[in-house]
Amino acid sequence: MRDLSAGPRVLLKRLRELMAEPLEPQERLDQIVRQIASNMVAEVCSVYVLRADGVLELYATEGLNKQAVHLAQLKMGQGLVGTIAASAQPLNLSDAQAHPAFRYLPETGEEIYHSFLGVPILRAGRSLGVLVVQNKAQRNYREDELEALETTAMVLAEMIATGELKKITRPGLELDLTRAVTIDGDSYSEGIGLGYVVLHEPRIVVTNLLNEDSEKEIRRLADAIGSLRISIDDMLSRREVSMEGEHREVLETYRMFAHDQGWVRRMEEAIHNGLTAEAAVEKVQSDTKARMIRLTDPYLRERMHDFDDLANRLLRQLTGFSPRTVADGFPADAIIFARAMGAAELLDYPRANLRGLVLEEGAVTSHVVIVARAMGIAVVGQAAGAVALAENGDPVIIDGDDGKVHVRPMADLQKAYEEKVRLRAKRQEQFRALRDVEPVTKDGKRIKLQMNAGLLVDLPQLVDSGAEGIGLFRTELQFMIASTMPKGEEQESFYRSVLKQAAGRPVTFRTLDIGGDKVVSYFRGHEEENPALGWRAIRLSLDRPGLLRTQLRALLKAAAGAELKMMLPMVTEVAEIRAVRELMQKEVQHLSKFGHTLPKKLQFGAMLEVPALMWQLDELMEEVDFVSVGSNDLFQFSMAVDRGNARVSDRFDVLGRPFLRILRDIVRAGERYQTPVTLCGEMAGKPLSAMALLGIGFRSISMSPTAIGPIKAMLLGLDVSKLAELLETALDDHHSNQPMRDLLAKFAADNNIPL
Ligand code: PEP
Ligand code: MG
After folding, report:
1. Least crowded by CB within 10 Å, which of 98, 197, 695, 710?
2. Is 454 a pocket residue for ligand 1 (Cβ < 6 Å)?
3. pLDDT for 136-194, tens place per residue?
């Protein structure tokens, strides 16, 4: 490969000096374009910078009419310059006027120039401006000249990114880098957060751009690539990377890329053109990113992301960069931006400072989202391009209700959101004031309000919300966020911590409910066409008694000397409950044989989620100590609607007559057998549906902790006997077309019940 000829090398050396000189920004820009023009034997060299309003403005020129500086402008996508910025691709033309996008700007006097070479000024794949050289004669610029111009553009990108050009930006205008942007994503966890951007993988800033000795830099690059390849091989040979599956697939792809000759060649070329090894990695990474942002094929995007990760690894090696420790300058109000993230990584951040999480990828059911929701922070997912658009420390608003992220928001938007947050805080304050108020309805019925939980991060909410206990502890969450199956002792110590933190308030542990949409990566069954109806929950536990017995033992040991309340998910036949009870008995015998202290009381319950149990209500109520209705699943199965598919699950109403009648039958069966009945699905946490539940006879419900306040406010104003009377007739009315939801809403409005 040919090294840069003496000319470009001299240019880069001169640019390095210029960057260090104490010059005014306009003067520095003017000198840069002059140097480039003379060095590349071009008659014209110009720099266009992208403004926040999407206009590319001429900031400096050598050769064109100087009067046009700060006046000549083109919209993004308009003319050759706008095309380069929009596509983030260079244009090399021997006859510029012949190009269909050519647009003549009379103020510049450029009509006499024929050949044209323009490159985007890129940062993290984003166009910040365009750098152009032009010649009168029709000529083709060589590949090395294009490379040299791209290298120079990196210097300009740095100048724009450091904010130096702000000083010479006309009043009232802003550069694109500081533009307010709104990213549309999906709402994964509700809530609003105001704060500052924290990039989960902070961008590695390469400040040492230009090399002194390219051979030395080539060697540095080769060494870094060498260690990168070794580290990937190391990872692949580790035992925990199973022989197949996603993890291995990703690493295999990394290995393939790390050996990709095209990638290595492009970086070497950049070094020969005068960059340091790290700047070369960054340049090729930025070029790749520019393409990636514009890709629509999800598979290709994923592969490009792999390249991006690999480049980051290389950069870390070459710059000796290690991510900032979290404590170091971490903002008090942090909104984390990441492409994707593991649940454990989120837990590493100081919880008190987290206001939101923005993910470019992810799914509502991904573990990190489950944890974020448990922590009560707003999450927006599928926020395309978020990481490239934001810089560490940028002000940002996350709107988890609408799935929007406002980066560098304008003052009026900021004000509106501050007001929203203030109102919410005020409402929360009112709910908090109810925390110690007994939940008794207007007509004197005592209601038991409990909360749902699944992680240790949930526990402080028990005291904060004023919940009486935990009505549903989803034990599968511990399994879902772990990378390997939690061992018996780990489970035991986890349950012990839960009970300790609950400090005497009852906790209802639900045994493992994996399968369906709850995926545990290290425990994969076969692909199932209908996982919701497949091998899951109690079915899986009974087929793998070792797994279930380990959990039962852990629960029994953790609750030694105290009360243990547990229940089984997705029961279809009462016989399944009996089978688990037998296993439980064996565990109890085993533990007492070895002298362990047993729980002083054992309460054994079942969840009612499968409609088949509706025709076994008598034996069910006789069999168990309590029943908890899982209305999320019971609704999906009885109405035949996928709970994860908004297309259909919004169609049928939990407050419709059929479902309310099902629930009423359950309550009546519980009353017949004096078996306590509770409900722990999402409908318990919505004031209107919770009101309906009380109206049909529920006296105990369990919900997300943030719902306790609003539900308590509702029931304090409710005359439940009056509602029961109304429902009794309305539910059995065979001729009414009035939706039950409307009837309930009218009742609430007529009786001033806060919803
Ligand atoms: C339910 O199905 O209503 C329930 C509470 O269980 P999960 O949401 O965990 O399936
Ligand atoms: Mg369920």
Report:
1. 98
2. no
3. 998 889 888 888 898 889 888 888 887 888 888 888 888 887 788 999 999 988 899 99
Give the residue among 509, 724, 510, 696 at the shortest CA–CA distance from 609.
Answer: 510
2 falls in which pLDDT band (50, 70, 90)? very low
Q: Which of 608, 609, 689 to mutate to test the pocket of ligand 1 (most atoms within 8 A of CB)?
A: 609
Surface-to-core class of residue 325, CB atoms within 10 Å of its CB (0-12 exposed, 13-18 middle, 19+ buried):
exposed
Cα Rg, the chain, nearest whole Å: 32
Stretch 442-454: mean pLDDT: 96
Residue 565, Cβ density class (10 Å: 0-12 exposed, 13-18 middle, ≥19 buried): buried
> At 249, phi and psi to the nearest 5?
-60, -45
Q: How far apart are CA 553 and CA 586, in angstroms?
A: 10
Kindly write down the DSSP assignment for every residue of 697-748, as one continuous string. T--EEEE-GGGHHHHHHHHHT--HHHHHHHHHHHHH-SS--S-HHHHHHHHH
Q: Residues 6 or more apart from 58 whose CB is under 8 A from it? A: 46, 47, 48, 64, 68, 69, 70, 71, 72, 73, 108
The residues that bridge with 435 in the sheet, in sequence order, are none
Q: Which of 616, 561, 620, 551 is nearest to 583 (CA)?
A: 551
Query: Which residue has the CA at smallest separation from atom 1 of ligand 1?
Result: 630
Q: Ligand 1, from 474, 509, 510, 639: best to mutate by most atoms within 8 Å of Cβ?
A: 474
**Residue 521 CB less than 6 A away from ligand 1:** no
> In angstroms, what CA-CA distances link 669 with 325, 618, 676, 693, 727?
57, 7, 10, 15, 18
Burial (0-12, 13-18, 19+ Cβ within 10 Å), 434:
middle
What was the pLDDT predicted at 3? 43
Q: Is the pTM of this model over 0.85?
A: no
How far apart CA 198 and CA 119 sit, in angstroms, is: 30
- Residue 79 Cα, ligand 1 centroid: separation in angstroms? 57
Q: Phi and psi dihedrals of 264, rounded to 5?
A: -60, -40
Instruction: Please tell me if the CB atom of residue 703 comes closer than 6 angstroms to any atom of ligand 1.
Output: no
- Asked if 1 and 271 count as a contact pair (C-beta separation under 8 A), the reply is no
* Ligand 1 lined by 513 (C-beta under 6 Å): yes
Q: Which ligand lies nearest the alpha carbon of 632?
A: 1
633 lines ligand 1 (CB under 6 A): yes
Structure tokens at 695: 């109206």
Handedness of CA 291, 293, 294, 300 (dihedral sign): positive
